[in-house]
Predict the structure.
Amino acid sequence: MSDAPKPPPKAPAPVAYKAPELRPETLPERAFVPELLRGLAVSTSHFLRNLLFSRDPSPDVLHRRGPNLVSTVQYPEEVAPYPPGYRGMHRLVPRPDGNPRCVACYMCATICPAQCIYIEAGEYPQDPIEKFPRRFEIDELRCIVCGLCVEACPKDAIRMDTGTHCKPTYDRPTIVYGIDRLLKGPAVSHRTDVWFKREGSDPPADGHGHPIPPLPGEGKS
Amino acid sequence: MPNERMDVEALREDPLEAELPRRNMVINLGPSHPAMHGTVRTHIELDGETIVKADPEIGFLHRGFEKSCENVTWTQCLPYTDRLNYVSAILNNVGFTLAVEKLCGIDVPERAKYIRVIGGEIHRICDHLTMVGAMALELGGFTAFLYAIEARELLWDRVAEQTGARLTTTYTRIGGIERDLPDGFLGRLADTLTRVAELREEIDRLLTRNRIFLDRTRGTGVISAEDAVDYGFTGPCLRACGVPYDVRKAHPYLVYDRFDFAIPVGERGDNFDRYAMRMEEMRQSEKILRQAMEQIPSGPVILDDWRYVMPPKPEVYGSIEGLIAHFKIVMEGVQVPKGEVYAYTEAANGELGWYVVSDGGGRPYKLHVRSPGLPILSGLPHMIVGSMLADLIPTFDSINMIGGEVEQ
Amino acid sequence: MARLFRMLLLGVLIVLGLCAWAWLGYLAVNWLGGVTLGWGWGATLGQAVAAIVFIQLLFVMIVATLLTLAERKWSAAMQDRIGPNRARLPGLGRFSLGGIPHVLADALKMISKEDFLPSQSNRVLYHLAPVLNFAPIFCLFAIVPMGPPVPIRHGFAVLVATLQIANPDVGLLYVFAIASLAVYGVSLAGWASGNKLALLGGVRASSQMIAYEVALGLGLVGMMMTAGTLRLDQMVQTQSQGLFGLSWLPAWGIFVQPLGFLLFFAAAFAETKRTPFDLPEGESEIIGYFVEYSGMKFGMFMIAEFVEIVTLAAIVTAVFLGGWHLSPAIDGGLASFAAVLVRWRFGFAEPTGVLLTLAVMQTAIFAVKVLVLCWLQLAIRWTFPRFRYDQIQYLGWRILLPLGLANVFATGVCLLLDPSLSLLGAVGLAEIGVGIAALLWSGAKSTQPAPAPAHVGSH
Amino acid sequence: MAKAVLDALVAKFPDAVRDPYTFRGDEAAFVERAAIVEVGGFLKHDPAMDMKLLLSVTAVDYLGQAPRFEVVYHLTSLTHHHRVRLRVKVPEEAAELPSVSGIWRTANWWERHVWDLYGLRFAGHPDLRRLYMPEAWQGHPLRKDYPLRGRQPQTPERDIPDLIRGPGPQPRSFDQVFPGRAPRR
Amino acid sequence: MPDQPAPPKPPPPQAPAPQPGAAPALVNLVIDGRPVQAKPGTNLIEAANLVGIDIPFYCYHRRLSIAANCRMCLVEVSNAPKLVPACQTPVSEGLKVTTNSPKVMDSHRSVEELLLYNHPVDCAICDQAGECKLQDYYMQYDHRPYRPAQAKLLRHKRKEIGPLVVLDQERCILCTRCVRFMREVAQAPQLGVFGRGNREYIDIFPGQPLDNKYAGNTIDICPVGALLSRDNRFKARAFFLSETPSICAGCARGCNTFLDHYDGVAYRYRPRENDAVNQAWMCDDGRLTYHRLVDDRQTRALAGRVGSGQPRPVDEVVAAAAEKLRPLAGQTGLAVLVSPQLSVEDLLAVALLAREGLSATTIYEGGFADGDQDDLLLRADKNPNRLGLRWVAAAFGLELRPFDAFLEAVDEGQVKALFAAGTEVPKEPSFVAGVLGTLELIVTQAQSFGPLVGVSDFCLPAAPHSECDGSFVNFQGRVQRFQRAYPPREEAQPHWRLAEGFLKSLGFAHRWPTARDLFRELSPRVPDLASFDWDELGPGGRPAPGLAARPAAADARPPGYRERVVTPPWQVKAARTDRPAAQDGGDGAPRAAEPPRDPPPGVGR
């Protein structure tokens, strides 16, 4: 896509309604056999191609090449790649020091239509962030993977970029994910994060205008 | 009911000539039945195998869509709309957001309109493939079903690329769409469409001229144009009766007036015509998609008005203004002006109408869905009474009832 | 390409396996027949026992069992899938053996499932129905000759060893008589379940059986007239000659009686109750006569279906596809090859040995034909939609029955005019030619996908 | 385009149709309760109106306002492509209005929908049953004063505890939620 | 009792008469084209409110002096060339006021931008988010992006300036409401404004914490998140909380409050305006009494003494306890202890139980011990309903004796058994428990755990006033209704329902579906209650559309974000059918039920 916005294309003249042609009954159709054989030919050709030729093991079904048409993905051995941006299982994004970025603002719990997020806030005594999630639990059975929590997070603290989905279990309580299981993935920092602004205390250490070099992983939300 | 009487008098007079006592057989198709999509119970009275009376009973899948929506913010309604017609979620998303935007009086950016059309038409093809495949499956043609499902899978892969989810997309937002198309998406979509077209033509070869299929679908489930309109049919089911009504043509929305496409119209209003409508509409949708892929402009995909749209993430992370707007939208929802509108789009099965009432707050005061499936389902008894039990199946398939949408 | 090679190798292996099976079968028939002959009981009993073991248990049941897997694997191949390949045998590591362990898994599942008894059912009939369904179908194969008779000398007596359980004079009448018994099982299953949908299935099965018995018989009448007998081995013998005196064109039933073949195949297909004739089952309308069955009782219905497939394929092979013959020329070639083999093995062409070797090869040919027909039935089952109840009656009574009568009449006329099959063969080949022409024509015309209307349904 | 419809309606039924207005391109008018059948028949059969397609019938519960309910009809014409919305005020005390299912057959189910969810009765409806809810359901769920929580008395359900919060103070059984007010069957 | 015909319903109380010497000449003016009549001296904000026009403001407060320093309320008036602050400008005859002209809107926007200029990016960690005026007005008037110019100023964050209050100077917009409150209302000027220009800030004086008894009100009146409560800091987001009108049970004043709760848990009290009782304030001690509603709750019925109590079904325990009490009825050995923490309805039922069920003639008064008192709100009596207890006891012919008399009687061995409704005692509870350990039978109805629960033979879970409807009588003799905020916890039940259970087990036929029915049946016996209409404050539903109900809180905020508990229609029906017809004079029942009708056709299909 070029940056310059293209002018909106010219609208062609509206097309009148038109009906598809319906053809009358033909003898081959009435005679059963020819059309049945033609149908049989379709499935037979698939059969022979799939029987005699080997399958391209490319996990992307669309791009499998060759006469074999099998589109099965043999799951545990072949994993169909999730496209980038696919809404997978949640993760809590860590800060560089390993704690979650989350400040327990409850935005995700508020917007969650399934009310599957449970948060209990705690207070850091010294940290400029002040607030952290003492408990952050997601009931993955309730989660409907709508992605609104990611959109609602004002701290880039929850993402759905793990590319996996929730593992099945045999009992319900184990499917409630706490911080210990949710906190994973690379740490992320933004230049506006609080810990950049309050290195010292009194003399102002920041502002939005001051350029702070971007850190690895920044700005890829 | 003449069939139910026991003609005792005649029996006494002449036991051989008297009509034997008989009763109609009453059976329940559903709520759990292989051919009842969703969970619908059809209460059927049979005389032999001829249907004497039919009474569809719904509600097994009723999830209180309207009540749920009245108690969440406008944004939170979106995941609920996915689950109306879960086969073509984007069409529902688009319809809902168009309704809210109409009430807000805002217009979305050009590129967002095109992307909405692209997503919607992909899902329209998915929906039609589902219907065609299900019809083949329930008539016994398993292979055609799996070709349809294979094609649908390929399209859903593209939907997953586009929206981040295969089925429940939650893709649109008030004022635009959630994310721009990924890099190289249009190329892959073109490849997919080619492959889908191949599979579609194979289904065509397997079914369309097959005598068994023709026998099963021609002349069954017939409804006349007058009756169809009277029953509130819209979409392919109405067009199969010969009424050329399509919201995309009659009241063009988004950018549908810029595309060259035709509206297939049937003649008889039977199951075969409804099937043929779907097959033809898939071709037309592919045509629309290819045009949209050529015409799509660049630019923003969502409005820049913080009253309706969450601010861009850097603003949220770094400025109090962005953060406040973000918080207000999340906490209280988009403040939609007071008023009421009815917005309508052409969904896969007909006119999808949204009657939205706002009291000026962050939650809908009333959100009514005019699901295209409900009137069509209400016309089902009219179409099948007098035909055979086996005809119920293709008829039920050809109206493509989606439980989530009908029962809300 | 590697897969192509593997598949060809597999085919060769199957043929070799069939040869080995036939060889063992003949030896057993010969040995047991000899034993009973020696005891003065006549050879029939011993031959029958050996044939039952080798045909019914080692061929029909194994093929039917493998067909349960093949149905899934072959349909998967038609539908761009892979099919079941996950079950493993312990100790074999990751080798899936093409999914064959699924057969064992299925059996295990069937046996260990709950044996469910609906509260509204008729207990006795409910338990009896699967047996009533399975037993007649299992008996059907008794009259099918799988290989040529081989005269073997036992002392002073000559034992004609053949892979056939019984060879009554009534021949095909046995097929009609026993096949129509199977429907009792189906109807009773539908009725005894105490389920309305199952009852509908049972009723549908009975009426369908009545409609198609007629076409079934009429389809074969032409062939009976052609062969002049009811006995299957003689029918096979009839087809071994060349048509018009040509050694490469065999006088198979399908060439002299193409219409009869179609009629019989369609009617017999209807008897198997598989798509497009699966109305008694109709899993998307009424769930079928066995809707209330579970576990091994359901398994018996299912295996009966597959046994029926094999039986149908075998009868069609024997009656219409020349049995174990290919064509006079190839038969001659095979005989020479057998002689070469025997000479290489024994140093001289011992006549019995040559005949036995030829019989082994021809039995394998018969079995391969059966397998191909099984595949055809599966392909049809997975491709076509299902008929409707009235349409199937329409097809049976108003299309197949008149066609069958016409066929009988035409066959009679031809045989009257020319008792050597030449005229009949000419007519038959003409019919086939017309069919192919129509197919090509329709293929040319149907490039347009637009549909054509059919006749409006009968209501 | 549809303004003409409103004008014609007001001209034809000066007493029954009032306050026509256009908002965001939607034409709408208020119709007197008793006249809805007459107005509907006119709209359907008059060739200049030709509103053969009744899109939906629904209701709104304006709890706290004087006529509490409002039944809303959406109509369109397949020939003229104009649309109109009819709003009928229904007071709570007499929650009943004439059925239009004699004019459009599709109204049959839509009116059952309204009866089920709002409890408005339609006089002359051939088969006024609940559409979604079981017949024994108590209350009409889309009314604004219908509670979001609580269980219907005739559906004893297994308690499904909230996994995170536990059973805790959440309502569990009817008696616990509303002690002493055990509902009667 | 129910057989007697009910006495005629007392006439409803007269609406409070207008000020004597009423009808002063009203001033006519026009605000946004709408004519307004207001009393002279009314400022423009109040006048605009009369016709439903909201003028934004930060520093203005109806009960404080006017500072006019936030400049948010600037409006255009016809008699001044410049914009004037609406809070400071009184109405005048013929004045034309414009509150929505582009000039005014631009002013709002500029002020908002200025206030946000140095505001930290803190909504995520600020407890005020959701009830913050900065947020409200930003979305209403500005909703435009940040224009970066230079770094934000940094000041003290999270400074704990008192036992209850934490200050964040960065968030402060210097409206000085808190300073004015401490000076004018609390009469303890512990807060001040320091610095100059954009380095100005609010702070306490060195070494002098903000420890006044009324300091908590500064949290309520702070329009932004600068002053926040340490007590429920980070406990719950404001936008989750639902509010229910309630009464503070901390002292005999009975301050009107909102109880903020979510998911069945109370999180805080906020004062509710009532000129006659508490204006718009409440004390810090009362503010913290919500903990009693949450902590250490006794929610299961126990049978068995000294910690060995096993949870049993409530009905079973009531029946068992009643069996033990039955032979003691009418004997002097049975003492009845009643706590003035109970509501009037509870007291009525307990008094009926004591008088008729247990044939007692004396009851002992429990309740918390007296404490501090001051001139503003605090009362020495720390129980909300002592006057109600006295009224009810007198009306039922029960002699009310103090708790000391009870202890004396126990010491003298006159008491063999005890029935206690409410376990609050004015002495050290463990001491009392030790004294009572000698009794043969102790039956208690307790809302929270304590030593008395430990020595009970039967202990029943009682619901506090947040979990049931009822009323308190404050020291002025004012009967005040409170509403149920959420369902009772686990198996807890109101005292009156437990008493009803006892009465039932003892052979009485009283049955009250709701507290309202109880009040209507029993209150005619109490002359002091005759003039109180129980339905005066009925349960509310969702506000009608378009009429955004502004709660009369100390600070404006939208109503709760989560659902309220509404009486389901089938229950209302049950309640209606239960009510005796003779008393069905009022129409105060919630109008929710559809009138009973025949089943629709086709039901019995």
